[in-house]
Amino acid sequence: MVEKHTMLNVESVSFDTDNPRIKMALEKYGDQLNAERIHFALRSATDGAAGTSSYSSLRDSIRASGGVMSPITVINKGVGYVCIDGNTRLAIYKEFLRDAIEGPWSEIKAIVLADADQRDIETIRVSAHLVGSREWPAYEKARYLHYLRNSRFMDYGEMIMLCGGNKTNIERQIDAYHDMNEYYRDVVDDTAFHIDRFSGFVELQKPRVKEAIFDAGLDLKDFGEWIRDGKIYRLEDVRQLPKVLRNDEAKKAFLAGGPRSIETAINLLDRQAEKDPSQKDSEIILETASVHQLAEVLARRINDLPYSELRALRDKKRDDVAEQISTLEDLSARLHGLLEDVSE
Description:
Shape: elongated
Largest sheet: 5 strands, mixed
CATH architecture of the domain at 2-122: Alpha-Beta Complex
Structural class: alpha/beta
Number of strands: 5
Distance between the termini: 32 Å
């Protein structure tokens, strides 16, 4: 693959309709897809995001600087070019031309790739979106991993080299993407399909969760409906499903209840544990507790951390706060090391 740095006429460069950041948004247009709709999708995907990656901030920066600092990357399609990295920058130039904004917007810095194969193109997309610094919804990242695995037939070793991480995490994201589309997207209309529910489907891939659903005589379509109906609102509560579904009273409260009914079921289990201390996780002797038991209790305590304690840690007004934060940082590092050891 050969790279050539040059200036290109903006009108000779087309948007990349396979851009993983906006591909989902573009699908709904079907045969009506055009440059205006692509432009809108690019803006919607970035505007309002944190940091300088937002469309508005980037547009203001480009206008103030009189051009882009980083060139876009394109491939030659014979009758023009396709932008495979830098579509938002390209959209801003096209907007300036459309609105007759004074400035040198008719040409843009570009890197033209010669003899780039599909793997080269995917590598650039991964670098620009999947592992770059720009905020990108987890669902869209998983969608792209699914595409690399099932459309490009990329093996896990190659995906790890391109995207980082490990096989277990990549598999979970791909499976979560599949399950979300199969069992959630099909039970809601497009206006009610919320990609911010994705982490619940990642939790679904954790050990014993699906098994607990099946053992209770239920299936994954039921799970999609629980997410749709808000029975599971805090998505981290998905990991509590095995306990809830094993307990007849908690299971009934969850299935028969309305929105956030899993929280009612969890509270019911806590009350049962108070009556029978042998069942209560918080009564476990620390020195003899398993790592899994400690992790469950700690996760619950962090989730229920009072705002006053969070503010005390953040403001560092108490003498012992620095030591507490140091302990938590050490725990985080040790957990990261453990997960790296046990993941494939």
